[in-house]
Each structure stands twice: as C-alpha cells, then as structure tokens.
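Final report, Chapter 2: Outcomes

The project's central promise was a pipeline that accepts a single protein chain and returns its three-dimensional structure in a standardized token representation, suitable for archiving and comparison. That pipeline is now operational. To close this chapter, we reproduce one record exactly as it appears in the project archive, with the input sequence first and the structure output second.
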Amino acid sequence: MQGAPARRSLWLDIAIYGGGAVFAVVTAIASEFYGYRVWGNCATVGYLVAVALTARIITTGRGSRWVPVWVVAALGAVAPLLYLAFRRAPNYVWGPWPWSFPAQPEVWVIERSAGELFAHGNPYIDLTALGRPPTPDDYTPYGPAMTVFGFPRALFGDHPLTDARVAFLVVTAAALLLAWRVLGRPNLPVRAAHLVVASPLTVLTLAVAGDDIAVVALVVLATAVAYRPGAISPWWTGALCAVLVTMKFTALPAAAVLAVGIAATRGVKAFGAAAVAFAAVGSALVLPVLLADPTRFVEHVVKFPVGLGRASSPASSPLPGHLLASLGPAGHTTALVLLGLAAAATATWVLVRPPRTAADAVLRTAVGLGAAIVLAPATRWGYLVYPVVLLGAAIGFAAANRVGTGVSAPAERSSVDGTPRDKARPA
C-alpha cells in the first residue's frame, strides 16, 4: 500500500509532467523555430506518456517512478535530436529563415570553428576579411575547448552522427554518469532527475543546441571530484575547471565557488594544486590560439559576449534585466547596478559561508548564475537551464551526502518509486 507521502510525491510527479506537456504543446504551436516545433511535438508525447505511467503507479501501487523520467529523456531529447540531425544532413543550406532551422546557430558555429582550426590553424574567422559588416553568426563566442565538439564533422564530414549535438549528448551523459560513480553510485531522488534530466529546459536544449547542457554537466562532475578528498587529487578539479572556463565563460562562477570550497575543506595545499592545474591546462588550451592572433581571440571571445563587438549579441529575452535596459540609459544603469549588487551578495555568501559540501557548492553557483541571468541587460531565457540543473544536482548531492560519499548502505526498497529508504544508522 502507498502511504500518504508517496501518493503526494506521485501527484507532484504528474503535475511536473503535465506542466512539461503544456510547455511542449505551446512550443510546438507557437515557436518560430522549426527545431523547437519538432521538439514540442516529440516532447508532448513523452510527457503525456510519463503522466499515464505515473497515473498507473497511483492506481496499482506498483512500478518505478524512474521509468517516466527515462521516457521523457528518450522522447523529449534523444528522439528529436536524432530526427533533426538526420533532417539536417548532409546538404542543408542555411539561410535567414528560422522556421526552417534544424539546429540552433550555435551548433554550426561550433562545427565551423573546428573546420577553421583544421584548415587555417585558428578557430576564429577573420572578420576583417569578410568584405561586409559582420553579423552575430560570424562570431564564435566560445573558448577554444568548445571547438572539440565540432571535431567529428570536421574530420569525418557531414553525417547525422557527426552533428555537434550528438557529441554534446554523449559528453553530458558521460559526465553525469561519472559524477554518480565518483560519489559511490548513491541512490538519487527522482526529484533531482526531474530537474537534471527531464525538465523542459534540459531536454529542449539538448535537442536543438546542447552546448550549455554539456557545460553544466561538466560543472556537476567537477563538483563531485572536488568533494572526494582522499580519493581524487585536487589537480583534477583544477584541470576540469580550466576545460570548463575555456569552453564558456559562464562556467567561471562555478570555478570560483569550487576554489573557495577546496580551500575551506581541503586546505591551502590542495587549493594550490588545483590552482596550478587550472593555470597549466588553461594556458595550454588558450595560449596557442591567443598568440596566433590576439585580435581575433579578443573580438570573438571577450568583446562580443559583453556587447562591445562589431556586431551586437542577439540575446534579448524579456527577463527583468533586459526589460530594465530597454527603458533607456537610466534603466540600463539600474540593471547593471542590480547585477553588481547580486554578484557582491553572492560572493559575500560564498566567502563568509564557504561551501563545505558538494550540495552547498552547486546551490551557491545556481543562485549566483540565476541572479546574473535574470538581471543581465542582454540575456536568454534558455540560460536558466544552468540554475535548474544545478538545483537538481544540489538535491542529488544532498541525498548522497546523507548516506556518505561511498557506496550506499543497505536500504529497504519502496515498491512505488524504486528509491531506497535509508535504514537508521547505529549511533
């Protein structure tokens, strides 16, 4: 028999899947982007099946709450991703028609950067040689490490499986699986998976783009590695953070939080090892490109993302910071002041109350990134996938911490959700 808490959890599951279905239906009908509409159709089926499976658990009292999660992941992420990859290959011609895009522009921008690297030794195109004013899609606003995801297409040509999104999906799955193994393969709450694996933001981003999901998954892995003292050298945390930051500067706050966490929990020597690794790996990834042409690197990676490039960033979702900035100079200044205050408050929180557990670290990073995304003058709602996934990771890390970072203790299983109920430990 199901207890009242179990039934409440199942009804909340239905509400979550139902909300996802509504979001997917609206996207399928109203989005101007072809890829979004394809995702909406696939995800609607996935979420409705998840609702039906959860309802069956409620009525019969049997089944696993994990099955609907994996159904959403399969039908909401993998299926539309593969469909769009096959729809795109091999000779799709890009144009200014978003209603026909089988991928978001960042996919082919990253693939182009890999082609440029192999052809000319630099992933960033020379904007002065275009013979016209540059557009946002001429820019590659990522660090050199992101170029790796374009290697399959650059090396093996146009094929559905060389689509950069496939590489993003593989790296995301591998990073999350490895993080789980680093923690000792604990039994994780289904609610954490709802945010990390099955939220509309996660599956939509995986299907149409994928780069942000790979970055945040690697943040989760770096956090798991950082908080396994005695098992993993802090060198690996520094190296992972260097890769993250040289993929996308969005990961810089996460690296800073982990640096404080390592210093607070593992001491100055461990912090020094991580810092040396960060500097060494970061230099190895950035210096060859930077020294080859400093002007290109700064224009693409530094100026364009902060709005100082020769073309303006198209990021303009109607979040509070952008709405304030659209009111004029005073509104723009107000948005920047609020952004600075939020950054200062988060930094104070991290320094005064250093993150002593993995859950603490990802929670602080989620809050800081969430505030930055909401208050930035130029932003996209899709970036909210960072705090959403990190909040899910915080739930998972907290659950793992309750049973220790090793292999979980023996536990009784619930016939409803397939998640162990921890036995009381002896004092």
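Archive annotation: The first strand starts at residue 411 and ends at 413.
This record, like all others produced under the grant, will remain available to the consortium after the project formally closes.
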